[in-house]
Amino acid sequence: MKPWLLRALRVIAAVGIVIAIILVEFHFHGLRNTTVDYSLLLAILFFAVRWGRLETMAASLVAALGFLYYFQEPIRGFKATDPQSYVTVLGFLITAIIVSDRALKARHRAAEALDRKRETERLYELGQAMLASDSLQTTVWIAINQAIPIFGVSGAAFYVPLTNEIHRGGESAPVTDEALRAMAAAKANHVDQIAGVSIIPIKMGEELVGSLGLCGAAMSETVLNSIGSLISVVLDRVRAGEKLLIEKRVSESLLLNILPAEVADELRAKGLVSPKYFEDVTILFTDFVGFTLSTETLAAEELVDMLHDYFTAFDQIVARYRLEKMKTIGDSYMCISGLPVRNPAHPVDMVMAAFEMLHAVQERSRADRPVQWQVRIGIHTGPVIAGVVGINKFAFDIWGDTVNYSSRMESSGEANRINLSERTYSRVKDFIACQHRGKVLTKEKRELDMYFANGILPGLVNGSSEIPPPAVVRRYNVYFQKDPPSFPGFLIGEAGRVEAGVNSAIA
User: Could you give the CA distance from residue 414 to residue 132 in angstroms, rounded to a whole number?
Assistant: First the structure.
């Protein structure tokens, strides 16, 4: 039914009800005028609450005329004999108008409160949906897809100036790309009631992050501003979360740069690290021959750059063989295998890594470099105690005779050679060709059996050009039930030289 026809029927109904009340009460002789007033006012109040102002005013006017005609002397006449009757009728009319107006205002306030409640519920629902987002794109996707069912619109579109992308959902064709970009640039709301299109800029402070277009339903400025503010708050939370996540990753990266992953996890979980005993690890020390002399001839910047180059190569080798870098002390580099994750292959892995470190140093001994360093490498296997010490600039460290013996293997070695202790030799001799040096006197005047590692056993290469050789992989699998993490490919070409050296030593 058309609105104007419905309104006309309501006016007729209101007038008819008032006339009916007047006629019924007129036939009850002896009713007081106040009784008639109250009954008519109740009817008018009902019209005000249930219908509208036009119906109420028409009913009030008819009620006043009927009261004058039927209940004021002379009866059935509009001309009263007592002027007080006009005052009574006028008072009734004014009272009816005031009461109905108050009722209408109360009704409107109740309707507005209900609308605000519904808007708040819709905004809350949209906010709850967007809280699941963790990025700008996710927030945009939720905003355009959830706004359609929540606010009863037919379509939504979001313009992101940063990427110049427009994301759409539903039937958003009336929201044009040009309008989205224009309103974003203008930073102002746009409402077209006829087309049913609303566009709002989305800002975080003074920064513009996009514009949201809704179509298919008329929306008030208050609702649009609330939607814009809600999306801004969620985007601000998302950005803060992304920043916090980046900071967390940076802090975790810094922590992992000074602590092994398992130790870092324990520190985060408990706030401390319990000392642990590792019954079997392999430790490697390196030291550059001629470094002290280089400090006298090289500029500080050149010296640091060269150390950075060498130690970066060592770091990459350590990562490739899944070793654990402990620290650098001046020009000395220390790493460990078999800790914190116990690994039965740690002596073999460490010697393989040592060959790659030696190769990296030899590759850098070129005429175009300021100096050509050589390196001593020492390796020993044994037990250690590990833990974290200190509260400021704390460090993960290891203690025990194994550390001291490893250092002595380095200092008792020779330039560009890998010096092994007897214990390490016994663990790698089925993979590595070694040369017994006899008993060597250490700084503490102790004689210890030492061995030079010369290369891979020639029998494990057996003419193969594969990297790693199948025989190496097979033996590694038999001994350790896994594949080798890496293999120095250049050792295959040196296997013949190693074999010749072994035969020469036997002869």
Answer: 62
